[in-house]
Amino acid sequence: MRPPTAGLSVAAGPLDDAPLTREHLRVVLIGAAGWFCDVIEIGVGSVLAAVYSVNTSPISAGQLSWLLAATYVGATVGAPTLGWVADRYGRRRTLLVTLTTLAVSSCAAAITPNVWWLIICRMTSGLAIGAYPVIIAAYFSELMPLRARGKMLLIAAGMGSVAWPATLFGARLLVASPVGAEAWRWICAGGGAGAALTAIAALRLHESPRWLRSKQKCASAERVEQAFLSATPVFARQPSLSSSSHAACGATSTALTETRSARSVRPSLVVALAALLNGLSPWSTVGFPLLSGAVLIARGFRLTDTFMFTALGACGSVAGLLAVSWRIDRLERRTVLLLCALSMAASEVVFALATKPFWLVAAGVLLTAAAAIYLHMLNLYVAEMFRTQNRALAVSIGWAVNRSISVILPLILLPLLVLKGAIWMCGAQAGTLIISAVFLVIAPKGRAGRPLV
């Protein structure tokens, strides 16, 4: 199976061969700040799962399941809706809408009077949480130099992922303080304030010139390109490509073409594959961080110790993203995804069988590292395979499947944990990853180091 772009000519924009500049760094820093706020909201789910899994919890197991699922209900709607908006009205404008939604819903969650209002606020936050990774994947793929697309995406994601261990360490400190079980309210308020500040900073972002050209806004696209090309380079010397030229306004091709021997595959097949992989991945990438605290509570660990172990495990996402970012664009996307899937499956088995804190933390670190790389590479893999006109929507379709499966995870995995134990739950999660690995073996290669279509 080959990429759907095989056989099609591709457009090499002027930014493909540009050096990394301070304008690129501005995008990375603002993107990382948005990711930080996005990950805080995801971390809040882990905090709520642990806080309300104790025997003295004021809410029932059924309410807790819906509370944990609410974010992903919103994400299921937010991903395709705002993905379509990003293709129609622009990446920058949609990012502003997403960050503003996150700011309002997070602050509202901090002052909710009961669990049902909290569910509504978490569902609204999910609209933004579902859309942000989709829009950023499309935005970075169109704006960053060709040989740094994956690197800059993972660096921004790695910086933003600091929010996960920070949220859990913060929860541990707050739970041990007079704040107690209300720690999540302070975390929501902080995340909402951060999202508001990031939205203000995002006002200074440029629109994607590829998107502008696709809408026949040539003058605006050239101004944006000139802003990046005239900015101060980060490094004195940059690797260059051979004679890249930018497409005329509205054009979708140049003289650069794929090999004649490559067979084309309909984009719908790649969308279907992306939907399948996105449907299988959340059983571990979402299920593990969401319920690992509940597993430790069930094994008799104290709440403060649980937050400590899960926070240490969460550090794996930061370390993994930053460690591989420097060479990610030299590796085939499909190979990276396959290795990550197998690493996550092995980690699930270790976590299920381990009883010593060291092995629990080690399994958590490896799994969260592999999961973070897998999710971001899967979004970039899909984004690179499609044209500018429908790039964000193509990514959002698979991501919506991911979020929709995440809705039912607490409703299935939490009862499985209670009735059968951690071994059954983790075994089921590992099984989905093995299935993913099988499909990745026959998946089309990605477009690492090659121009976008």
Please identify, by name, the CATH architecture.
Answer: Up-down Bundle
Total domain units: 1
Question: End-to-end distance, in Å?
Answer: 18 Å
The geometry reads as globular
Extended strand count? 0
Helix and strand arrangement:
Layout: H1 22-51, H2 61-89, H3 91-110, H4 115-143, H5 149-161, H6 163-175, H7 183-202, H8 209-214, H9 218-229, H10 267-280, H11 282-285, H12 287-298, H13 303-325, H14 333-353, H15 357-383, H16 391-420, H17 422-441
Give an overview in words:
The chain has 453 residues and is mainly alpha-helical. The chain has a single domain (22-211, 220-232, 264-441), classed as Growth Hormone, Chain: A. The chain contains 17 helices and no strands. The radius of gyration is 21 Å and the shape is globular.
Provide tags for this entry.
single chain, 453 residues, mainly alpha, Growth Hormone, Chain: A, 17 helices, globular
In summary, what is this structure?
This protein has helices spanning 22-51, 61-89, 91-110, 115-143, 149-161, 163-175, 183-202, 209-214, 218-229, 267-280, 282-285, 287-298, 303-325, 333-353, 357-383, 391-420, 422-441. With 453 residues, the protein is mostly helical. It has one domain: MFS general substrate transporter like domains (Growth Hormone, Chain: A, Up-down Bundle), CATH 1.20.1250.
